[in-house]
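Much of what follows relies on a compact textual record of a protein's fold. An example makes this concrete, so a full record is given next.
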Amino acid sequence: MFRNCPVIVMLAVLLGACSSGGGSPVPPPPPMPPAPVSSITLVTDGTIYTAANGVFAEAMAIDDGEIIRVGSTTDVLAFDEPGAKRIDLQGRLVLPGLHDSHVHILEANLSLSGTCLLNAGQPPGAHVSRLRACAPNQQLLNWVLGFGWDITTFLNSGENPLDALDQAIPDRPAAMMEETSHAVWVNSSALQALGITENTEDPPGGHIAKDNNGFPNGLLIDNAGDLAFEASLVRTPEVDEETYQALLRGLQQLARNGITSFADARVYWTRGYHDAYSRAEAAGRLSARAVLGMWAYPQLNDATQLGELTNFFSRSPNQLVQRSQIKVYVDGITHMTTARTLTPYLIDYGFGTPTGLNYFDEDRLATYITELERVGYDFHIHAIGAGGVREALNAIERARAANPAILDRRHRLTHVEHVHQDDVSRFAALGVIADIQLAGDFTDPLQFEMDNAPFIGAANPALSLPARALLDSGATVTLSSDFDVSSLNPFHGIANAVTRSADNLTVSEAVDAYTISAAFLMGHEDRVGTLEVGKRADFVVLDRDIFNIPGADIRQTEVLLTIFDGAEVFRSSRF
């Protein structure tokens, strides 16, 4: 058969390159058909916490990003087909995609506002050399911006902050944010750029601190400090690009931490932050669902601002970005003596009234809620002091009376660090969500008492960080990070929630606060938040079973895999 083919081409003959008769070559075989493409993903052999009434399962089947079966591995394998993708959990724990309902992911990653990183705990003069060194590194802005000093240290130092910053940066405006973001340290050039003199009145929700001679001393408290960053971060094409890149960096952080839905807690629309989100969605770069808290500026005219916010509203199940919340501050924070209290502060820094200050007082807040909940907005209200919590609840109650036909409200108070016992039951009665941050070290009960007692007293008739009391009262409770004030890692918050006091949450309660309850807060509990048939496949694979380890060990949990809308957005090298 092979007599007409040279020996050296025998292999080619076998492949059809020669014929037995020496004629035309035998044509090659047709190409193999491509491997079948399947939209099915099978997640098998694990422990899946569905967050649906505490139910656990072993496996899931997913078709084109939608969950089509939850049950045993045997049940799910019935959906196997050629080309189906398999995720073998090997016994590992799966949770629904985690939600961070209060995070500053874009702000935290904006390099322009953190050129000078300072060490808290140092007096003004100790920062001069660092400020001189970092100032030339500022990019794109005429101002020099930074972060990290501590208000208590500054006030106890006896130094004039203005003198130190003028010495360090004498030739251009400079603004350094305090570590809690509730004060800004500025130099004389900044005061001049802002038009602030000894005769300038305090802006709404803010205070211009002054020296013994009545002149500004460089400390701008709460909203007075926000004005400096508003003036410095002026939109240009270059600044917009950096804003966009900051968002992309933040999305990577979210994916690494298993967060597939989040609420940006302060979207400065005059700076174009909402446009960065729209650009990311249009480019297919979003790896999480985003609910934007459009910032209500205390200093803007109400009629103008209400019109602008009305025009921004957008809520669509077909979009990953929802412009559906309004972020508003009622008060400041306790250790700045600007949180709104029910009784006078024991320490008076003179930054507001003896009971703190208001960014938005009760009357104005009630007007905003009344007008904007008619548009469809939910309110995300910063309220830390017991007085601020009461005023916010009052404003929501007044809006309900004005808009009795609106039934589906998802308003929430965030922080709620101090709640008077008389106001606990009002959350459930008014349908108000309590959004509490427990991830930070400051939430340790002993540390919290140490930090707050000098200002409001140990016997103050308020409950502190009352997640247990609010949950028991029937209120919806969510847990969140307030990153970058606290760690973005949800397992820090869960660990603290289940270990730090006699009023601990259970692990399932804490997980629910990061999943189904937060999904309800964001208005998409019909699509995500639990792992059930018909919902989108947002889930995370963990390196340990947090339901069966000591609570303190939950803090060490690592995310091995994050799936968003059925697609992998993060995979650890360990998985």
In short: The longest helix spans residues 237-256. The radius of gyration is 28 Å.
